[in-house]
């Protein structure tokens, strides 16, 4: 009976020891083992891992890509415009031993570096760069965050500036500027259209001058276009060239005949003017 109890106790102790020494590491994790407080250089991969009870302690490190939103930061750009900018950082752990040993909380450390870098990039940039040239700013921001993160065993995959909030007065000024720019372009386009139309009209006038029949054809085409609208009244212009043609083709009329002098008539032997009844 005593032997059975001892055997049961031994089996229970073995099971308890095995349970305390077994660790399960997930596929996206790595296990960093500390033996008597000293880190082992080899990490434990995914699966079942055994450690020495009482001597070893395992710390699991997540190797997945982490999305870290950076809170909005207020700053003044290089051209003295107050803006509020927020961003997002994508990073992942590449060296679990450094992450577990060199930095206490790598997530909080990267957040602080990202906030400082974002404020710095705002002060070095102009407003137009923040609004239209974000790709270059994202690259500079990624480089500024990645420089200290490399020593912690963290790699910055990507940094994106999400939104740039402007004051209401600046928004109104920019809208007025954009409206004035659109008005300027509209006037320039209209002027260019008038210039091109005048050039084409001048060329058409030269062609009609060389070929008068072209004017008549154009007149007939205009009449056809007006008649297609089903108008009850048709105004037909009379060309001046036709009047000149008729004037040239009309023969010159002779001047009215001068009165023919009458021969003198003798009355009682004296000459006198002829009297025509």
UniProtKB/TrEMBL annotation:
InterPro entries: Band-7_stomatin-like, Band_7, Band_7/SPFH_dom_sf, Stomatin_HflK_fam. SUPFAM superfamilies: Band 7/SPFH domain. Pfam families: Band_7. Residues 20-178 form the Band domain. It comes from the Bacteria. Residues 250-277 are annotated as: Disordered. Belongs to the band 7/mec-2 family. This is Slipin family protein.
